[in-house]
Inverse folding.
């Protein structure tokens, strides 16, 4: 037998082994998807009989500290999660826990101006993979919740087939931003006061807040300006999504949707994203005035009268809070919605 033929045979055998391995791993992953409980829902279920509130929305949820809100809460938020994804998660949640009576939806700049159609499928899957499994009733009532099933299945399969993330990053030559202004000191915990990813603890140096304003602004502007339709249509779509969330809560259990504009630095707010902030504020106020079970609380300027640029303790970066900042902000929010230390008082 020639060397050439031997090489072909070896190649065919190796290909068959790789194919068999991939099939086995895919089948195993699909079995895992069908049998394993959803981690977030599992943690949530342990305390769900005490749950007063759930939080959705993006990473600005790090500014919520449930104990100071006088509430037992659990956060299903995620980095970059948009209104459409929050709505899908809510639909899955209320099917499992129909007693949910309050949903907090914290958001940052341009939430109503973000075109969800510009988000990559893989990024959307990352968010929806951590939603509860939709029930049979949910899938019939809300056909789009099949996207959750798809996301959870694909993520489970790819997680089994892909190499370790750190190894992939190393092989691809990816490097972390090691600048003094880049840090992430969160404590990874399945349930730190109901917040799964843990809180930022180390505040940014004052110079970092100044230096990163322009970079943060540019990144957000690029996201908001990448649209597939006119801005007015994007905003109309997002307004409809929030109204649908409020309607779902009202019909299921008379629940309340609280829109919370989270604190940011004055410098970031006055940058090129200000028009989006102002537009969002107007839209949220209009929704709260029109829909009976929507409350809007604006905490954007909560720390503007403090000397945070001289001794910052509250900002992790220009638009995210540290644990200390979250505790202060949540104390103020509690008073606004009639909870916590001021429970029983009317909302200002």
């Amino acid at each position: 037998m020639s060397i050439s033929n031997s090489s072909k045979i070896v190649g065919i055998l190796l290909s068959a082994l790789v194919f068999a391995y991939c099939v086995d791993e895919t089948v195993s992953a699909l079995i895992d998807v069908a049998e394993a409980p959803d981690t977030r829902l599992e943690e949530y279920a342990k305390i769900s009989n005490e749950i007063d509130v759930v939080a959705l929305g993006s990473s600005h949820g790090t500014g919520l500290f449930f104990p100071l809100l006088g509430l037992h809460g659990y956060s299903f938020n995620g980095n970059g999660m948009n209104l459409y994804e929050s709505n899908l998660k809510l639909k899955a949640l209320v099917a499992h826990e129909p007693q949910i009576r309050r949903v907090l939806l914290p958001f940052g700049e341009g939430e109503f101006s973000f075109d969800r159609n510009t988000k990559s499928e893989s990024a959307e899957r990352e968010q929806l993979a951590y939603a509860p499994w939709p029930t049979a009733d949910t899938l019939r009532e809300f056909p789009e919740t099949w996207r959750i099933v798809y996301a959870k299945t694909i993520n489970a399969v790819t997680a089994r087939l892909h190499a370790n993330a750190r190894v992939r990053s190393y092989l691809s030559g990816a490097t972390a931003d090691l600048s003094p202004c880049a840090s992430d000191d969160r404590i990874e915990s399945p349930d730190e006061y109901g917040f799964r990813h843990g809180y930022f603890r180390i505040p940014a140096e004052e110079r970092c807040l100044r230096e990163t304003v322009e970079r943060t602004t540019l990144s957000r502007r690029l996201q908001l300006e990448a649209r597939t339709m006119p801005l007015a249509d994007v905003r109309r779509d997002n307004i409809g999504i929030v109204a649908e969330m409020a309607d779902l809560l009202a019909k299921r259990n008379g629940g309340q949707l609280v829109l919370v504009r989270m604190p940011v630095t004055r410098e970031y707010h006055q940058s090129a994203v200000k028009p989006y902030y102002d537009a969002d504020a107007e839209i949220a106020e209009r929704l709260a005035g029109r829909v009976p079970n929507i409350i809007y609380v604006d905490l954007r300027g909560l720390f503007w009268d403090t000397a945070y640029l001289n001794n910052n303790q509250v900002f992790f970066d220009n638009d995210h809070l540290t644990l200390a900042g979250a505790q202060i902000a949540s104390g103020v929010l509690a008073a606004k919605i009639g909870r916590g230390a001021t429970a029983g008082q009317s909302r200002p």
Notes: The longest helix spans residues 3-35.
